[in-house]
Amino acid sequence: MVTKRRVGILISGRGSNMACLVEAARAPDYPAEIVLVLANKPEAGGLATAAAAGIATVAIDHRPFGQDRAAHEAAVDAALRAHDVEIVCLAGYMRLLTPYLVSRWAGRMLNIHPSLLPEFKGLHTHARAIAAGETEHGCTVHLVTEDLDSGPVLMQARVDVRPDDTEATLSARVLAAEHRLYPEALRKLASQPLPTADLTS
Ligand code: GRF
């Protein structure tokens, strides 16, 4: 029996990557269990998916916090700690994080990004890859640091860009690769010794 790391997943939308992590974590020999799915939007479709899978869910709407990102992040952090989370996976979490939350989860927070980082940080990655004439594209799981989409790469998956690809066809192919990659990347991180959490900030 492996020791399962306790994982919280942050989402903003449909949560298809989250659902793949939940599915992978069902295996007895998978080194992580999903103990919380948290959304910054109460209407995020992934919340219902997670609840149906028997996972605890929390919505912490960022809108009532206005410009006070720190206060919203403090509430998110408190929810993660209340569930004894050890690793955080961002999965389509569409909020820029401040150094506060990033530093508290340094070395323990993953993100999945739909490009072969360091290429195409930010949004609209598939359209930009096509426009740039790339023949290869893909996705990356990386540790989260203060700079957007810039932390150390844990794993990447490549897909070919076909001559007739549209943003829709390419994004669908990359998403299928994401669904295979994220469970493998979380397996890798959860199998390693984790840094001690920094709760001083
Ligand atoms: C994925 O493409 C992910 O790489 C990006 O946002 C999308 C989330 O999709 N960060 P889903 O909510 O996991 O279906």
Description:
Helix content is 34%, strand content 21%. It is built from 6 helices and 7 strands, in the order βαβαβαβαβαββα. The longest helix is centred in the last third of the chain and has 24 residues, at 167-190. α1 (16-25) runs parallel beside α6 (167-190). α1 links the parallel β1 (5-11) and β2. It has helices at 16-25, 45-52, 69-82, 99-104, 125-131, 167-190; strands at residues 5-11, 32-39, 57-59, 87-90, 109-113, 136-143, 153-160. Strands 3-2-1-4-5-6-7 form a 7-stranded mixed beta sheet, with helices on both faces. The chain has 201 residues and is an alpha/beta fold. The mean pLDDT is 96. Bound molecules: 5-O-phosphono-beta-D-ribofuranosylamine (GRF). 5-O-phosphono-beta-D-ribofuranosylamine binds at residues 11, 13-18, 91-92, 112-114, 175, 178.
Write the layout of secondary structure elements.
Elements lengths: L4 E7 L4 H10 L6 E8 L5 H8 L4 E3 L9 H14 L4 E4 L8 H6 L4 E5 L11 H7 L4 E8 L9 E8 L6 H24 L11
Parallel strand pairs: 1-2, 1-4, 2-3, 4-5
Antiparallel strand pairs: 5-6, 6-7
Helix pairs in contact: 1-6
The site of 5-O-phosphono-beta-D-ribofuranosylamine has 14 residues, from helix 1, strand 5 and helix 6.
